[in-house]
Design goal:
With 163 residues, the chain is α/β, with parallel strands linked by helices. The chain is built from five helices and seven strands, in the order αβαβαββαβαββ. The protein has helices at 4-7, 27-38, 53-58, 96-106, 124-133; strands at residues 17-22, 42-48, 63-67, 81-87, 107-118, 137-142, 148-155. The protein has a seven-stranded mixed β-sheet with strand order 3-2-1-4-5-7-6. It is globular and about 40 Å long.
Length: 163
């Protein structure tokens, strides 16, 4: 999988924190981990999976959170992250609105959210509308990975919920 265009979506600074929430790690997880490590940033992974053993070795500098069921919300502190990436979780989670609310709260002002799902799984228009309802702005559908629908939006200071 060529991730060149995908990685161009990110511009981390030293001290930035990115969180990927997913059901399965893949090349995007590896690329984000390496990107943040190279930028002197922090990478966190919230993994909805039973398999945990190899993750500590694979991502030794990451903050790891394991969730065993799709009914559990991931944990994150308010205004703690500069980017939240949902990969293959948004359509599967039992409470997508709940995890979207957590994402909004944990994002710093002017931070981004990305929702990635395999092509055809996500109702793109409905999800863009849901992002709007949750006060995310500049919603876009970006076609850069052939196997994924990718939506990106921004939390803006003094808009909507104003957190």
């Amino acid at each position: 999988m060529d991730l060149t265009q995908f990685l161009e979506l990110f511009n981390p600074y030293p001290g930035n924190k990115y969180l990927q929430v997913t059901t399965e790690v893949d090349a995007t997880t590896d690329a984000l981990y390496d990107l943040m490590k190279g930028a002197n940033g922090e990478f966190a992974l919230a993994l909805y999976s039973q398999e945990q053993k190899e993750m500590i070795q694979r991502y030794p500098d990451a903050t790891l959170q394991y969730l065993t069921t799709l009914t559990q919300p991931f944990r994150a502190l308010p205004r703690d992250y500069d980017m939240v990436i949902f990969k293959d979780i948004f359509s599967k989670h039992h409470n997508p609105k709940g995890i979207l609310k957590i994402a909004y709260t944990t994002l710093a002002n002017a931070a981004h959210i990305i929702i990635m799902e395999k092509k055809g799984v996500l109702d793109v228009d409905a999800t863009l509308q849901l992002l709007e309802e949750f006060e995310f702005r500049s919603q876009n559908s970006i076609d850069i990975l052939p196997e994924y629908d990718l939506l990106m939006a921004k939390k803006l200071h003094m808009w909507g919920n104003g957190l």
